[in-house]
Specification:
Chain lengths: 110, 110
Amino acid sequence: NAGVTQTPKFRILKIGQSMTLQCTQDMNHNYMYWYRQDPGMGLKLIYYSVGAGITDKGEVPNGYNVSRSTTEDFPLRLELAAPSQTSVYFCASRREQPQHFGDGTRLSIL
Amino acid sequence: TQLLEQSPQFLSIQEGENLTVYCNSSSVFSSLQWYRQEPGEGPVLLVTVVTGGEVKKLKRLTFQFGDARKDSSLHITAAQPGDTGLYLCAGGRAGTALIFGKGTTLSVSS
């Protein structure tokens, strides 16, 4: 069972570069989420989606964009990477409870 | 403002000891979830409690939801090195995304 798949697992970006973090789930879940996890700070919600075509901001959306054109995919876009966006990014999905998490993307901005 | 406060932030104990991790809030939640996260992986759900005063046991782990549904605790009996990890509590309310605490990092040495 694939569950929630995130790619890439690791990435190093230069300041000002852009990239897309991919997230796909094969469980037909309607809810999908993007979190960032910084040391000692827990999980902060960036964006979430309640279904295809619907997205909404979370707690820390600045510097990020998302789209949800299909039920399966929920990519996260960084347009102008900044050092403050160095973090581990987790995608999650659910129908009811619980949330199922991917294994994360470790992103460093240098 | 951190809606969910976890304590302690770090805990280092010997194999066989007992421990309790706390998750406190001034807000009421409809459900409280506990996750465990290992390095390089996403959080994995341990338990969900939904009723005030509810107690759930999962082998050596005992979870309790406060009567007022504002706080929760996780008690581990006879800790083992395999219990090492980051323990996260997350509060749920209808129609909103989960709110995560900052986590408790547990290290159990043999």
